[in-house]
Structure prediction request, 232 residues.
Amino acid sequence: MRSARAIIGALVLAASAATSSPLLAEGDPAQGDVLYRPCRACHMIGDGAVHRVGPHLNGIVDRVIGAVPGYEFSDALAKAGAEGRVWDEAALDRFLADPRGYFPGTRMVFRGIRTEQDRLDLIAYMLAEGGRSDGAPMDTADIAVDPEVATILAIAGDVPYGEYLSSECTACHRDSGGSDIPTIRGLAPSAFIAGMVDYRNGTREHQVMNTVARRLGDEELAALAAYFANAD
Prediction:
């Protein structure tokens, strides 16, 4: 049975499908491919895409906001999805211009793209590579999960041990966060572990984070994820 969110989203999509957006006609997918390269560290798209630090972006255009199974969204995006809001081209354009201005409370550390043409090119690429959502609810079984992340998520994290380990993290990741270094208190374990696995494997590059992540084993990552998920 469809959830209320899916039903609302489908109604919104049906209403918007009758009109085509002028944005895509102006975007260059080839140039968008170039612009998307920094995004790949957090968001996979295309064949075999899985969630990383951020959700995969297959079917992002016309997808209900905050509605992908297997990923825990920030409260701001989850609320928007519950209201039936959709990532149409106009919403994506506004979000890419100023993510935290458009959705205060988003966990994404990205300052935005000022140039309108660059945003249009990026949206055109995401549509060409990831397709357009058809409004149907996605089945969790169809979402691929990174096996290394899944293995660590299956470990029951030791919260006191995570608190003991946390001081190295909180030396940079302050409670209030910042423009480039976000807070990690209250972060969903799946997002925390996916990020640390990417740093550990070198998928994401940051000299300090790569060094820290490579020193941590699976039990330690599970403990840290459990601690930060419940930290006030």
